[in-house]
Automatic annotation (TrEMBL):
Alphabetized GO MF terms: aminopeptidase activity; zinc ion binding
Species: Prasinoderma coloniale
Gene3D superfamilies: 2.60.40.1840, Peptidase M1, alanyl aminopeptidase, C-terminal domain
Keyword Protease: yes
Keywords carried by this UniProt record: Aminopeptidase, Hydrolase, Protease
Stretch forming the signal peptide: none
Stated name of the protein: Peptidase M1 alanyl aminopeptidase C-terminal domain-containing protein
PANTHER family referenced in this protein's UniProt entry, alphabetically: PUROMYCIN-SENSITIVE AMINOPEPTIDASE (PTHR46322:SF1)
Residue ranges of every copy of the Peptidase M1 alanyl aminopeptidase Ig-like fold domain listed in the record: 11-114
Entry-linked InterPro entries: PepN_Ig-like_sf (IPR038438), Peptidase_M1_pepN (IPR012779), Peptidase_M1_pepN_C (IPR024601), Peptidase_M1_pepN_C_sf (IPR037144), Peptidase_M1_pepN_Ig-like (IPR035414)
Amino acid sequence: PRPSLWYSQSGTPNVTASGAYDAEARTYTLTLKQSMPATPKQPAESKQPMLMPFKVGLVGRSSKADLPLSAFEGATEGVLRLSEAEQTFVFEDVAEEPVLSLNRGFSAPVNLETGLSDADLLFLAANDSDSFNRWEALQTVGRRVLLGAYERRMADGAAAGAMDALTEAELSALVEAMRAVLADAEGALDDAFAALAVKLPTSQELAQAIECVDPLVLHECRSAAGNFIASQLRSEFEGIVASRAPPAGEAYSPDHASKAKRALRSTAVQYLAKLAEDDASMDALVSGAYDGASNMTEQLSALAAAAAAGTPCSQSLLDKFFAQWKDDKLVMLKWLQLYTGSDAEGNLANVQRLVAEGPVYDINNPNSNYALLGGFASSAVNFHAADGSGYKFHGEMIQRLDGINAQVAARMVGPFIKFRKYDEARQAMMRAQLEMLRDTPGLSANTLELVTKSLDG
C-alpha cells in the first residue's frame, strides 16, 4: 500500500486487535485487521488497505514491566507495519503472560479496538511505560463506566445524584488506577500528563456515543462520578495542592515544569471544589487557591473550579475577579464565559440580567457574544433546562443579533444544528426555536441557510 492512500481515501480506518499467549510455547500471537468505512462517493469495497505503523509493547502481568520482544532484537518496544487487510505477528520467547500495549504514542491515527477488558486496561493505566496508552486506558474505562451508569439510570429512573452499586464498584477500580498515576507523579511522571490522565471524559465526548441523549441525566451521572473520585482521592489531591503551591515571592515562569505543576494543582482544586458544598474546609481551600494565586492563570483556574462546582465561595470569587479586572475588556471576556457557563440552577436569570444591564456584555462586540452565548450553551443545567427556557433565550438572542451582525448570529446557531442528537422532548423544543428563526421576516441569508439546512437534516 502507498502512503498516498492516506490522502486519497477518506474516513478514519478501523483496526481490531486480538492476541493469544501460549504459555507452553512461550509465544504471543497478535492478529490485526483493518477496514475502511464507506464515505460519500467512496464505498467501503472500493478502498484499499492502508499502510499503518503500530508501535507495540508487551507488559508482563506478573512483573508489571515491559518484556523484551524477539521481533525487535530484545528491545521492549518496536514498530509493526500493517499493510494488509489482516496480518498476524508472532513474538517468541515471551517469558510470562503479557497484556498488549498497542499503538503507543498514538503512532497510527486510527479507531482501535483491542478487546481488552476493564481489568486489563486498568492494569495498563497503572503499569504501562507509554504515557499515551496509560491515558487512553483511563479514558476508555471512564467512558465505559459513565456510559453504563447512564444506561442504567435511564432504564431504572433513579433519582438525580444516585449511584448504583455496579457503577460504584467500577469507579472504585478506576480510582485505584488514578491513585497509581498520582503516586507516580510524586516521582518521575510528568505532572502535566498526570493532570490529564485523572480527568473524566467530557460530556460532549460521551454524548457522541449515545442516541437521543438526555444531556441533564448525562451531566448528573458524570457529576456524581466526579464527586466520588474527589472523595476517594481527597488526601492525594490535598497533598498536590500543598506541594505544588508556588513559594511565596516566586516569580511567574512559563517553563514546562512550572506549567505542569500549575496544571496538576488546578486539576486537584477542580476535584476538591466538588466537595465544597458539604465541607467548609474544601470551600476554604478553593477560596485560598484563588487568594494565594500569584498570576492570572492560577486565579482563573480557581475561579473556574468554583464556578463549575457552584461552591459557596463562587459568587464572592467572581466579584473579586470582576473588581480587579473590570477595566480590561479582554480579561472580562473570560469572566463572562465562566459566569454564563455556570451549572448553578437558575443561572439563566443572571445571564439575562447581564444582557439587560451590562456593562460587561456588549451586543455590538462579536467576542462578547461568543463569550456570553458560547459559555451559556456549555451549561447542561441551564441551556438544556427541561422547560426549554435555555433554548428560548438562545433563539431570541440569535434573532436579535441577526439584525446587528449576521455573521455572529449564524455562528450562534451551532448549538441547535445537531438537535436530532437529543431526546424527543428537547428535539421538539430546539426545532421550535429553529422554526421561529426560519419564519423571522428579514432573517439574513447566512443565518437562514444554517437554520434551513438544520431543519432539513
